[in-house]
Design a protein that fits this description.
four-stranded antiparallel β-sheet, 342 residues, DUF3549, DUF3549 family protein
Length: 342
């Protein structure tokens, strides 16, 4: 009898007797269900959070019949022109896995699930790795390994030396911020946290679903910062990142306030495109106002962000509708035309 055909990473992991979790790492960290990832693999669904025309993901897998040890692949898989996963590249990745580990994944201490020289892997930054590790522990129902010092700090931020905190401890705190032992302390002492800690916290919050009361608190801060945007541009940027997984309703509300400003820094536009993409596509009017701001940038910035936005499945139809139906503001159409004529 011939061996059954393996047509996806999901099927391959199941055939090897593995259980697994998939975390999308394209624009922050988001856990994908197995069914969602399977839909993506079969091109029934566009990659939801692409970056640089790739899907970035972390795959945690283990074989419960062999040991409790988990293994991780960090994968960077290319997309096609429609924003769908490139199946030929995915299949090439699987072939290289079999070459390196065998069909059973070689889940042994000797091989350790390592892929060796594989063009479809990437190395996360230290900060990305810290938040990925913290989120993975939550998904696997494992205890935090470095939370004690961070808890002690937020309980008494004026007494505990913040410089003793590790990146991992702040990541653990951030990912678990909604828990009953953390949120009350965080809410009580948020205004007392030292600048570097607050910065790491707000940047890390883009990697988790935001607790609604904390989202409201940060949104109120954002409103104050928007009122004096020129002075508090950096703080606006931190709030945009912190609210990356807040509710769409909240994002749309504050997006309108930001877009109402007479001018915006390039970094603000980049962050909105990268973190609040669903809010940008919520109404054609807001996307149009964003693009008007974008026309004041250099041509390479304009076309770069335009190409980034058109990859996003929720933004693409709204954006192309504005352009093809010529309902976009004239300054946008003029900018596009001038770039195309170069």
């Amino acid at each position: 009898m011939s061996e059954p055909t393996i047509n996806s990473i999901c099927e391959f992991l199941h055939a090897a007797g593995s259980q697994f979790k998939i975390i999308d790492m394209g624009r922050g960290l988001r856990t994908l269900t197995e069914q969602t990832f399977l839909e993506i693999e079969y091109q029934r669904q566009a990659v939801p959070f692409p970056r640089q025309q790739h899907m970035w993901l972390g795959c945690i897998f283990w074989n419960p019949n062999l040991s409790d040890q988990q293994f991780i692949w960090f994968l960077k898989l290319p997309l096609d022109e429609r924003g769908l996963l490139n199946q030929a590249a995915r299949n090439m990745f699987l072939e290289k896995v079999v070459e390196a580990l065998g069909a059973d994944l070689g889940l042994s201490e000797e091989k350790n699930g390592e892929l060796g020289d594989n063009p479809f892997t990437f190395t996360p930054t230290q900060t990305q790795l810290a938040h990925f590790s913290a989120l993975a522990k939550v998904q696997l129902d494992l205890p935090a390994t470095d939370l004690t010092s961070a808890l002690a700090y937020i309980a008494e931020p004026m007494k505990v030396d913040w410089q003793t905190l590790s990146v991992q401890s702040i990541a653990e705190l951030t990912i678990r911020h909604a828990s009953p032992e953390i949120y009350p302390l965080l809410n009580k002492h948020l205004g007392q946290l030292h600048g570097p800690v607050l910065k790491m916290l707000f940047e890390g919050l883009e990697n988790c679903e935001l607790h609604k009361p904390l989202a409201i608190t940060i949104a109120k801060q954002l409103q104050d910062f928007i009122a004096d945007y020129a002075t508090y541009t950096d703080q606006v940027h931190l709030c945009i990142r912190a609210l990356a997984q807040a509710s769409l309703e909240l994002q749309v509300k504050y997006l309108k306030h930001i877009l109402a400003l007479p001018s915006l820094e390039v970094d603000t536009l980049i962050l909105l495109s990268a973190r609040w993409m669903n809010a940008l596509s919520a109404t054609p009017n807001d996307l149009d106002r964003f693009l008007v701001h974008l026309t004041h940038c250099e041509d390479d910035v304009f076309i770069g962000l335009y190409q980034d936005l058109v990859q996003l499945p929720n933004v693409r139809p709204v954006l192309l509708g504005l352009i093809h139906q010529k309902t976009a503001s004239p300054v946008i159409l003029t900018k596009l035309q001038s770039i195309l004529e170069q």
